[in-house]
Automatic annotation (TrEMBL):
SUPFAM superfamilies assigned to the protein according to its UniProt record, in alphabetical order: P-loop containing nucleoside triphosphate hydrolases
Xref: Pfam families: ABC_tran (PF00005)
A single GO molecular function term of this UniProt record: ATP binding
InterPro entries the record matches: AAA+_ATPase (IPR003593), ABC_transporter-like_ATP-bd (IPR003439), ABC_transporter-like_CS (IPR017871), BCAA_Transport_ATP-bd_LivF (IPR052156), P-loop_NTPase (IPR027417)
Protein name (record): ABC transporter ATP-binding protein
Keyword terms, alphabetized: Amino-acid transport, ATP-binding, Nucleotide-binding, Transport
Family as reported in the entry's similarity comment: Belongs to the ABC transporter superfamily.
Domain ABC transporter: 6-236
Length: 237
């Protein structure tokens, strides 16, 4: 690959004696949208949590912007532009929407008010309710808040774990529209999804995970076009 911004080589993640990730390698070209797809339990979340510094890998090497970040903790990576939108959104339900966005800015070492204002322009539903507790938002709105909170850190690489999980189809469309916009603005996106077809339609490159290993990879359109892959690994949706 000509200019990978993120490279993961032979990554291993274990929980006690459970080997959840057994030598996963992938890379993301600068400005691209890469997706890791696979069934429940394939190891997708473990991979992305290791990349974002939320959990410590048992082995392998992760390189971001040419630097080894294999053991760099999450808060340092956020300040360097590698930011994760966690699975299950994990917004702070009792804090207001505005406070949630400020927390995102604070984690990134402070962000200008104009960056937060830009989020309100982009997500009018958040602007209207900025003084309300985040827990009062619907599931889709909470996902938008989680994305906006990551964006105030001005990421160069955004990692997203199952952003469509538990959302109604119309809201899933909206979430994917936002993901594609983020990518169009130049941010590299690494997207973990069980909704494989949907993710591959949006992605440039895809990796199919099964039992903690990459079983197929390639241009997303090629993976989607291969009936055998779709049948064997991607299931119905
Ligand atoms: P999901 O969509 O369910 O999140 P996934 O593909 O993201 O699936 P992981 O969550 O990474 O998969 O899980 C991979 C394997 O590791 C599974 O067998 C899971 O049971 C196991 N696992 C995950 N987290 C833990 C943990 N904290 N302790 C023990 N085992 C775990």
């Amino acid at each position: 690959m000509s200019d990978p911004i993120l490279t993961v080589a032979d990554l291993r993640v274990s929980y006690g004696r459970v080997e959840a990730v057994r030598g996963v390698s992938f890379e993301a070209a600068r400005g691209s949208l890469v997706t890791l797809v696979g069934a429940n339990g394939a190891g997708k979340s473990s991979v992305i949590n290791a990349v974002s510094g939320m959990l410590r890998p048992a082995g392998g090497r992760i390189t971001f912007e040419g630097a080894d970040i294999t053991r760099t903790p999450a808060h340092k990576l956020v300040a360097r532009g590698l930011v994760q939108v966690p699975e299950g959104r994990q917004i702070l339900a009792t804090l207001t929407i505005d406070e949630n966005l400020r927390m995102g800015a604070w984690h990134a070492g402070g962000t200008a008010q104009s960056t937060i204002d830009a989020m309100y322009d982009r997500f009018p539903v958040l602007a209207e309710r900025r003084a309300l507790p985040a827990g009062s938002l619907s599931g889709g709105e909470q996902q938008m808040l989680a994305i906006a909170r990551a964006l105030v850190a001005r990421p160069t690489v955004m990692l997203m774990d199952e952003p469509s999980m538990g959302l109604a189809p119309k809201i899933v469309d909206e979430v994917f529209r936002v993901i594609e916009e983020i990518r169009a603005s130049g941010t590299t996106v690494v997207l973990v999804e069980q909704n494989a077809r949907r993710a591959l339609r949006a992605a440039d490159h895809g990796y199919v995970l099964q039992s903690g290993a990459v079983v197929r990879s390639g241009p997303a359109a090629e993976l989607l076009a291969d009936e055998r892959i779709v049948e064997a690994y991607l299931g119905v949706d």
